[in-house]
Amino acid sequence: MDDKDLRIEALEKDLEMHRAIFDSIFNGALVTDEKGIITHFNKPYGDFLGVDPESQIGRHCTESVVNSRMHIVARTGEPEINQSHNIIGKKMVVQRIPIKRDGRVIAVFGQVLFKDVKDLSRLASELKVLESKVKLYEAELLNLRSTRYTLDSIIGVSRTIRELKQEALRAAATHYPVLICGESGTGKELFAQAIHHASNRKLFPFVRINCAAIPKDLLEAELFGYEKGAFTGARSDGKPGKFELAHQGTLFLDEVGDLPLEMQPKLLRALEDREFERVGGNKIIRSDLRIIAATNQDLDQMMADGRFRKDLFYRLNVIPINIPPLRKRKNDIIPSAEYILRQLAAEANLPGISMDKSAQAALRNHQWPGNVRELSNVLERTLSALNGKTIGLSDLPFYLHQNRKPLSNGGSSSLKAVQAHIERESICSALEQTGYNKVKAAELLGIHRTLLYKKIKKYAIPLEKKPGENRAPKT
Ligand SMILES: Nc1ncnc2c1ncn2[C@@H]1O[C@H](COP(=O)(O)OP(=O)(O)OP(=O)(O)O)[C@@H](O)[C@H]1O
């Protein structure tokens, strides 16, 4: 066989294949020339119309197919997609596509998409059912996976809080790392959850890791996971770390200031390379996550002291959110207290609870070392012991009364000294009220136990009641 024969054989095979494809177009198809004369008519269309496909070739399209518009499409050159077409008592859905060469129509391809428009409506209603199911599952997933708090859960009327909420909303629209700084109880986790919730990652996990609460040697395995037998006590089948678990979601690195120095470059590398290995493993794992870190520590000071790496700080601090303590946004205190009271009262089914002026003044004057958490705890305690419907000064815990008295703090009146004095007094008072139970005192103050210990040490507060000392607690 010479070259030409080979080419002819290939072309014949090609033609055969095209014929087979054309005859396999499920719901029928035809082709006309530029005048509407049928050049191709497939078998399924013949079966559907009850005609012999071969004998349709050479006829005008309107003779073969009632209401045909193939010749019109040939004239206009405009495709007609998903059009209804009445034929043999049925409404079909068809498409007619002009085939052009050098801008001129040379043929028209027509195809039946649905033999009966009812098929399409059935599909459409099935799709509707599926869509509503998807919505339902999305809502369930959101419930299961997502966060408890949204931006609406953040209370505060001050300009600062309103601006921070705007900032959080802007952050949610990006994938950049966010660093939230603020004292304990200012709502750092609340903001982190709200950002996650407002982002397009909200259907994926929000994974939290408290860098201060995990022993140093376990932190790497917690973050990156481990392979079987990585260390003594490791689970025999290995375990994914928080980085893996947060895939497509958000990883919240709480208390990032407490991340041990030796762990910092490892975290930085994982953030920069966007990949990591499990402890004891050698497989590279990639995780698509957004980082939100939070701390109540002064990272500037820590960097100056060499306790926090600058490169890690810059990596985390792409979008900074600094939440000021409650005492620095005093006009948030009463609205927040009222909001929390309304919530607590509704939960306890106690309508119409209010605060008198003296109680409001005491709340405004208090320094709130535990911030909103402390405010919430104080109100909860107060409400649980309240007789009547109005909270007065005497209903508030004793340590709140003292802030209204002139201060005797060794004569110093610098803001720092006054703050330190009040903080010390509040801690002493909370310890007394709770019978020197540190867990309960920390709870009352709305701070973490470790922070309470730090402050007890800082102010050299005795860890038990001195004999003879009698400062009667309120409750
Ligand atoms: N602006 C706020 N609006 C409503 N609730 C708040 C606000 N700030 C804090 N809270 C409440 O105070 C409590 C502590 O908040 P959160 O855990 O977010 O604080 P945090 O700054 O992360 O504290 P920590 O540093 O101790 O972990 C939560 O119950 C939270 O709902």
UniProtKB/TrEMBL annotation:
| Record GO terms (molecular function) | ATP binding; sequence-specific DNA binding
InterPro entries named in the record: AAA+_ATPase, AAA_lid_NorR, Homeodomain-like_sf, HTH_Fis, P-loop_NTPase, PAS, PAS-like_dom_sf, PAS_fold
Q: Which GO terms describe its biological process?
A: regulation of DNA-templated transcription
For the PAS domain, which residue ranges apply? 14-59
Positions the record marks as coiled coil are: 120-147
What domain of life does the native source organism fall in?
Bacteria
Q: What keywords does the record list, in alphabetical order? A: ATP-binding, Coiled coil, Nucleotide-binding, Transcription, Transcription regulation
Family matches, as Pfam families: AAA_lid_14, HTH_8, PAS, Sigma54_activat
* Domain (Sigma-54 factor interaction) ranges: 154-384
Its recorded name reads: PAS domain S-box-containing protein
Organism of origin: Desulfatibacillum alkenivorans DSM 16219
